[in-house]
Amino acid sequence: SGTALADAEGGGLWVGMQNGRLYHVAPGTRVLRRQDLAGVEASGVSVVSLLDREGSLWRGTSDGLRAYNPGTGTAQAFDAALLQQPIETLFAEPNGWLWLSTPEGFVLFDTNTEQVITVRSNAPGNASNQPQAPALDVRYDSAGMFWIATAGSGAAYADFQTSPIGVYRSEPGALASPSLRSIASDSLAIWAGLNSQGLNRIDRVPG
């Protein structure tokens, strides 16, 4: 079964499967064409998330971060320990950084230099301030703040200038539930789609 979808930079759609297989759907067709990864990586690695940018298809898998170049047919895994755990969500910044959500928290990865950075919380040493649940959706707001919808830790936010992580949790005046499915923004507010309790609006600006 398919577990991940991504727009293809050259048009069409990428489909990642639970059994590790990768397919491409060409524009204007309904045909899934399997990409041959034999000889470049082990099979059976579940594809959890996909992101196509600058000639590489980045895949968050159950066995870490992988890159695949459709033009050359080459694939790459990464040696860093933080990139060898399940990658649940991928989100790209224009400068070449990838945001990765893992069971250990959030990780920044520079695709140009392969530098890896763990993202600290607003209160170092305070584990309660660090989101522990998987990220299901991510979004920039109009002020450049990065918002993360988690499946149990509320709505997390980050400022790329200082790289802190803060969290809106389930509490009076915040969220009706800590379990989110999606997040979006307009010029006035952040909108949180909750798992079973409708839509919440976040008006507060993180300080």
Distance between the termini: 43 Å
* Beta strand %: over 45%
Dominant shape: globular
Number of helices: 0
Lateral strand order in the biggest sheet: 1-2-3-4
Helix vs. strand class: mainly beta
Count of DSSP E strands? 19
Low-pLDDT regions: 120-128
Radius of gyration: 18 Å
Main pleated sheet: 4 strands, antiparallel
Helical coverage, percent range: under 10%
Q: How do the SSEs run, as a string of H and E?
A: EEEEEEEEEEEEEEEEEEE
* Averaged pLDDT: 75
Describe the protein in words:
The protein is an all-beta fold and 207 residues long. It has strands at 2-7, 13-17, 22-25, 32-34, 47-53, 56-61, 64-69, 74-77, 89-92, 97-102, 105-110, 116-118, 135-140, 146-150, 155-158, 165-168, 180-185, 190-194, 199-202. The strands form five sheets. A four-stranded antiparallel sheet has the order 1-2-3-4, with no helix packed on it.
Helix and strand arrangement:
Elements: E1 2-7, E2 13-17, E3 22-25, E4 32-34, E5 47-53, E6 56-61, E7 64-69, E8 74-77, E9 89-92, E10 97-102, E11 105-110, E12 116-118, E13 135-140, E14 146-150, E15 155-158, E16 165-168, E17 180-185, E18 190-194, E19 199-202
Antiparallel strand pairs: 1-2, 2-3, 3-4, 5-6, 6-7, 7-8, 9-10, 10-11, 11-12, 13-14, 14-15, 15-16, 17-18, 18-19
